Amino acid sequence: MSPEPLGYLAHKKAPPGVPFPFLWTTCAARRNKPVTSVSFYKLAGDQQVALALACQLIQKSLKMNQQVLCLVADDAIAQQLDEKLWGFQATAFVPHALGVDNAPVAISTDAEPGDHHQILINLQPQIPTWFSRFDRVIEIIYPHPEYEQAKRDNFKFYKERGYALSFHDLTEKFHG
Fold it and tell me: Which of 174, 138, 133, 176 lies closest to 154 in space, CA to CA?
């Protein structure tokens, strides 16, 4: 049925090759990758408490079938986290590997993320340039003057660029 009332001539179709009179941008495909969300966890303890929290967050992520890249400052910290994951829970195994690997959990000091893209736990003071390829970034803050200031700068960086931020103050609740 024609949208014109009876007795009126119907509009002719556009000849082939003539663009439609509406914008194609309204029909554009939606972005299928969500914007990276960033969570900050503030602790009262030292670096060892931060590693214990990282273990808990890793285990929680694995239960949700998420791959995790844990970025640490140096090989000594990587080794400490590796040891904590081996003895973290007597009833559960946390599959992990040192270095960028295809394991569900990778512990790395490298400047390259490998194939990981779901969760980044950043235990380095600075933000890696490739952080936005991850669905979620977790920044763990513990009391150390230079480290705390670096994490404040990180928070400011993410906020200025409009990333979804959440802040969890665990200073009273989490003691490793």
Answer: 138
Is residue 88 within 8 Å of residue 51, measured between CB atoms? no
Pick 36-169's CATH classification: 3.40.50.720, 3.40.50.10110, 3.40.50.880, 3.40.50.300: 3.40.50.10110
Q: How far apart are CA 133 and CA 113, in angstroms?
A: 9
Total-model pTM: 0.77
The answer to whether 141 touches 43, Cβ cutoff 8 Å, is yes
3-state secondary structure of 70: strand
DSSP lists the bridge partners of residue 121 as 70, 138
Say how many residues make up the chain.
176
Tell me how far the alpha carbon of residue 13 is from its chain's centroid. 49
Chain segment 35-82, per-residue pLDDT in tens: 899 999 999 989 999 999 999 999 999 889 999 999 999 999 989 988
